[in-house]
């Protein structure tokens, strides 16, 4: 870790620090292998999704998404796999500053930032290239969905904070690090959560977009032979030893359109099959989103009717007079 | 809640506005109308005035705490205070002895540190063993747009948090030392004293999900709850590997032995304007736990950090200030709060301590 100081923040010791090394994982490779998580779901089964809207009252729209990981083991301090926790906040639409050039449609700005404690290795405070890359992918997924012509000369800010992100692979495999498989899951989560936040903000869209991921994995080889290739939906990279290819989509289920497609790895011949798998996963996310949005709408409507009956009952809650 | 100023009763009302528009157009008269209406209308002093958010001036928001939800942290907490929501994660990493700049060594661990009054603040601050940081640009409020450097507010906040952490001497340096006693096999001389091979560094990152006033209170209490939740793995110097290794058995991990339980309470002073010159009653209100709207119209603010853990919860329940130790008082702007008012505020903070103490205790 470089000893560059940032005078606007509290700095770590200039000599740098290192993450703790656990003795058993160094001395006993067998033990380390015993910690490897495995996929217990079926290949077509998605992880549970928790979604909530309206978590930030000062923002025009906001949402929180959580995909829980494997439960924490009671016999070791090393977490086996990560979960996914993302918050999205929408600021705007608001008028662009006077100095900005004329824009006939809504200007969309997306910012994606990992929290310092989001991954197994600590993240920095300043956005790195991975985070900027995710921001660009997210923007392209959302730009086609929002009807921007209805807000000329305005801008909207979509701020995504990743409290916890999926990992690129199992922590014990050094090959998994930096491969970027986890980013596909993070992107798909970002698409779903920002879509829910946009709907919460009441910004006009052509349809609700949702994210989904599918991957082509090689089954663990037995008796020396190479394992067969299997297509899995919503892969958790740390549960698979050998991922061949993966694909994330932003999918409009109502119109059967794809706004964002990100494929990594060697897709073999059946790329269509992989993309179709990802759209199936996206559809699963959409059903959750629809339910949550309907629920929040119902709650809002209920509060509204209660308030209006209140106002009829007495003058409380009514207007405040102000002498001119 | 119809707030009618006395002037408006004489003349027919010229303008009426819905509440949010009144609040946005003229925030100061809006809050003053709220605070003065109930006191003036009903000539009964027993009824306290209400603020725009429905609370009485001395009412705090009730806290919500949830700990241990983050996977990659040694300790974590989510604290909710009305519409203010904060996530705090504590992560421990190892600072090796050879990486300590200047090779400074501090008081040896010889005189074993069961001593309560060991002064380790210098050790903690010089080695930078506590690294608190805050992030406000998470879309938590329209004022903090990401992409910019930390604002003045963020820098002030993080400095105040660090100063409070150090001055209250919450964390013990002895908890963060990783000591090593060389095995003196063969030699029959008296065993060598243990030497500090490494330190644990605590990265304390606080993220604001949503801000609605009292940012300092929420952030500090999130840090407090996260530190109480923190489990540090057992670490030792391994002679074979010549490195510091840890034990991944949760049973051998230990909690931090924190000193006391300092709880901050923020107050804002609202100064009413006496435009007609017919001042009835008081024109200043000291508001507990202000929200963002109130903070925007109040110039003077007071933050009191008290610790009643020595006296126990019984003292704080009565609202008495005996046994409450004032750890810190910060006051800025304005001239309203004097010595008498400050006494009252310390009393209110002591009461507040009991609420937090109860909420934090439920988590363990």
Task: List the SSEs and their pairings.
The complex is a heterodimer of chains A (324) and B (364).
Chain A: H1 23-27, H2 29-34, E1 50-53, E2 61-67, E3 84-95, E4 107-114, H3 129-143, E5 154-164, H4 181-201, E6 209-218, E7 229-233, E8 243-252, E9 257-265, H5 271-313, E10 320-322
Parallel strand pairs in A: 4-5
Antiparallel strand pairs in A: 1-2, 2-3, 3-5, 6-7, 6-8, 8-9
Chain B: H1 6-10, E1 15-17, H2 19-25, H3 27-41, E2 63-67, E3 75-81, E4 84-96, H4 121-127, E5 130-135, H5 152-167, H6 173-176, E6 177-180, E7 195-210, H7 215-229, E8 231-232, E9 235-238, E10 243-246, E11 254-255, E12 263-271, E13 284-288, H8 292-297, E14 300-307, H9 313-317, E15 325-332, H10 339-361
Parallel strand pairs in B: 5-7
Antiparallel strand pairs in B: 2-3, 3-4, 4-7, 6-7, 8-11, 9-10, 12-13, 12-14, 14-15
Helix pairs in contact in B: 2-3
Provide structural commentary.
- The complex is a heterodimer of chains A (324) and B (364).
- Chain A has a single domain (36-69, 79-171, 178-299), classed as 2-Layer Sandwich (Ribosomal Protein S5, domain 2), CATH 3.30.230.
- The radius of gyration of chain A is 23 Å and the shape is globular.
- Chain A has 324 residues and is of the alpha+beta class.
- A five-stranded mixed beta sheet of chain A has the order 1-2-3-5-4.
- Helix content of chain A is 28%, strand content 24%.
- The longest helix of chain A has 43 residues, at 271-313.
- Chain A is built from five helices and ten strands.
- The termini of chain A are far apart.
- In chain A, helix 3 (129-143) packs across helix 4 (181-201) and helix 4 (181-201) packs parallel to helix 5 (271-313).
- With 364 residues, chain B is α+β, with helices and mostly antiparallel strands.
- Chain B folds into two domains: 50-59 and 263-362, no CATH class; 63-183 and 192-259, GHMP Kinase, N-terminal domain (Ribosomal Protein S5, domain 2, 2-Layer Sandwich).
- Chain B is built from ten helices and 15 strands.
- In chain B, the strands form four sheets. In chain B, strands 2, 3, 4, 5, 6 and 7 form a six-stranded mixed beta sheet that branches. In chain B, strands 13-12-14-15 form a four-stranded antiparallel beta sheet, sandwiched between helices.
- The model of chain B is unreliable at 1-9, 41-46 and 108-114 (pLDDT under 50).
- The interface between A and B is large, with 67 and 85 residues.
- Strand 10 of chain A pairs antiparallel with strand 1 (15-17) of chain B, so a sheet runs across the interface.
């Amino acid at each position: 870790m470089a000893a560059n100081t940032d005078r606007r923040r509290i700095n770590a010791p200039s000599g740098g620090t290192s993450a703790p090394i656990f003795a058993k994982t160094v001395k006993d490779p067998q033990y380390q292998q015993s910690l490897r998580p495995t996929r217990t779901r079926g290949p077509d089964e998605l992880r549970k999704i928790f979604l909530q809207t309206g978590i930030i009252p000062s923002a025009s729209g906001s949402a929180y998404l959580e995909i829980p990981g494997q439960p924490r083991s009671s016999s070791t301090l090393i977490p086996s796999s990560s979960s996914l926790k993302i918050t999205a906040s929408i600021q705007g639409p608001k008028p662009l500053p006077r100095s900005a050039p004329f824009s006939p449609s809504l200007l969309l700005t997306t910012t994606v930032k990992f929290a310092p404690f989001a991954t197994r290795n600590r993240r920095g405070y300043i956005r790195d290239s991975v985070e900027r890359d995710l921001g660009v992918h997210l923007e392209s997924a959302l730009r086609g969905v929002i009807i921007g012509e209805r807000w000329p000369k305005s801008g909207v800010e979509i701020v995504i904070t990743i409290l916890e992100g999926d990992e690129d692979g199992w922590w014990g495999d050094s090959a998994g690090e930096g491969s970027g498989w986890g980013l596909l899951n993070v992107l798909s989560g970002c698409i779903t959560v920002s879509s829910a936040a946009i709907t919460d903000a009441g910004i006009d869209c052509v349809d609700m977009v949702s994210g989904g991921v599918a991957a082509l994995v090689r089954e663990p080889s037995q008796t020396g032979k190479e394992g067969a290739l299997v297509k899995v939906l919503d892969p958790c990279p740390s549960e698979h030893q050998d991922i061949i290819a993966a694909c994330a989509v932003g999918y409009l289920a109502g119109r059967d359109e794809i706004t964002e497609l990100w494929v990594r790895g060697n897709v073999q011949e059946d790329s269509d099959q992989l993309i179709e798998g990802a759209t199936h996963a996206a559809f699963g996310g959409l059903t959750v989103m629809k339910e949550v949005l309907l629920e929040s709408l119902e709650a809002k409507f209920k509060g509204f009717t209660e308030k209006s009956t209140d106002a009829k009952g007495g003058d409380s809650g009514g207007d405040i007079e102000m002498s001119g | 809640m119809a707030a009618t100023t006395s002037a408006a009763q004489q003349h027919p009302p010229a303008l009426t506005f819905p509440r949010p528009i009144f609040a946005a157009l003229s925030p100061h008269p809006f809050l003053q109308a709220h605070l003065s209406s109930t006191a003036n209308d009903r000539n009964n002093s027993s009824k306290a005035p209400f603020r725009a958010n429905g609370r009485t001036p001395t009412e705090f928001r009730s806290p919500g705490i949830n700990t241990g939800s983050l996977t990659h942290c040694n300790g974590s907490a989510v604290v909710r205070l009305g519409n203010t929501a904060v996530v705090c994660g504590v992560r421990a990493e190892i600072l090796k002895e050879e990486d300590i700049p200047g090779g400074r060594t501090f008081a040896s661990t010889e005189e074993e540190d069961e001593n309560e009054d060991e002064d380790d603040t210098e050790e903690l601050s010089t080695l930078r063993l506590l690294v608190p940081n805050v992030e406000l640009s998470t879309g938590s409020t329209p004022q903090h747009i990401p992409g910019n450097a930390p604002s003045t507010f963020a820098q002030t906040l993080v400095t105040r948090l660090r100063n409070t952490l150090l001055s209250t001497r919450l964390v013990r340096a002895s908890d963060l030392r990783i000591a090593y006693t060389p095995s003196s096999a063969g030699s029959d001389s008296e065993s060598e004293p243990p030497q500090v091979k490494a330190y644990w560094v605590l990265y304390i990152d606080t993220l604001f999900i949503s801000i609605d006033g009292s940012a300092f209170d929420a952030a500090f209490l999130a840090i407090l709850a996260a530190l109480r939740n923190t489990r540090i793995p057992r670490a030792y110097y391994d002679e074979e590997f010549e490195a510091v290794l840890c034990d991944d058995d949760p049973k051998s991990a230990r909690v931090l032995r924190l000193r006391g339980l300092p709880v901050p309470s923020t107050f804002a002073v609202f100064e009413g304007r006496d435009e007609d010159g017919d001042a009835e009653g008081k024109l200043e209100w000291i508001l507990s736990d202000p929200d963002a709207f109130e903070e925007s119209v109040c110039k003077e603010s007071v933050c009191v950090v008290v610790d009643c853990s020595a006296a126990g919860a019984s003292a704080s329940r009565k609202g008495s200030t005996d046994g409450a130790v004032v750890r810190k008082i910060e006051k800025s702007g304005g001239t309203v709060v004097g010595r008498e008012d400050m006494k009252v505020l310390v009393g209110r903070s002591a009461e507040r301590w009991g609420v937090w103490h109860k909420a934090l205790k439920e988590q363990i």
